[in-house]
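For the sake of clarity, the format in which proteins appear in this thesis is described at this point. The record quoted next illustrates the convention:

___
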Amino acid sequence: MNFQRVFGTLPTTQASAPGRVNLLGEHTDYNEGFVIPTAIPQRTTVQIGLSSDHKHHFYSAEFDELINFSDDDTVPQKFVSYICGCVRLVEKAGYKVPPINLYISSNVPIAMGLASSAALEIATLRGLRGLLNLPLDDLRLAQIAQQAETRYAGFNCGIMDQMAASLADTNSMLFIDTRSLNRRRLRFPKATEILVIDSDETHKTGGSHYHQRRAECETAAQILGVKALRDIEDSQAVEILPQPLRKRARYIVSENNRVIEAFKPLPAERFGQLMNASHTSLRDDYELSWPAVDTLVRILQETPGVFGARLTGGGSGGACVALVESEKVSSIALDAIASYQRAGYTGRVLVPPVV
């Protein structure tokens, strides 16, 4: 089924945006810290045309679902909350959005920690920008997308995912200071590429653990007398906190320091060590890992040709990312999947895409 079959007409414009993995800097964005994501090849694409009536019509090929929505309706949940949020925020910015037909297709895995919602938001906003010739740059799109997710989808996220979907590419890493929104493209360590494997354990980013961790970080920052944990540079400063705030703050401070170190060109071995340390602290101090993910990360870390590996995304399931020798990526992927299956799990390679 395509746009014309659903809506009986051809689309006016088309836009897309990628998913992302995060190499370092998990959960630091809502602490106004530093992150290093990169885009993945998988993308979400929207096709947009004008509606023939007074309603918006949104169709998802993945869910095979058509939802009709008018400006007077309460924003529904499901996938349309992200789209409706984008439409309404564009209108609140002073631009009239006429009733539209919008068709979504995507190969960004959902609930795998790969920012599928941000890809949908940015693709939608790019489509609206093209359709209406809106004077909104890529950073502004990211800001609107984050507001859409927070205010309309009900997920109080940082801005990393939306900036990655809007500004990152697959050929470089994107260093972002999430307080100032300054960013810089970084080269991958020489002769390396990323390997991303789906653990087959759906992650629970929207659950209570994420919001609990955010609240714990905010409480820790208040006790330490700073605006955000980003303002603490010495990890020893958090040792005065009671548990579990001490462990939460220890992770955020150490993770920010890892990202700052990775800002300068590093050999692959050192970058991989930072990734390994990131996963260990995320597992032990932040307590947002998952048994299957820990198993997959351990397998990857022990596989020859892998410099480092960690979970990526919000945690509690999802995908793992590894920095590997470029020439060995295929054999590493096969070996890791085989070992993971022997451990009693199933997984699949997401990046590089299996043809």
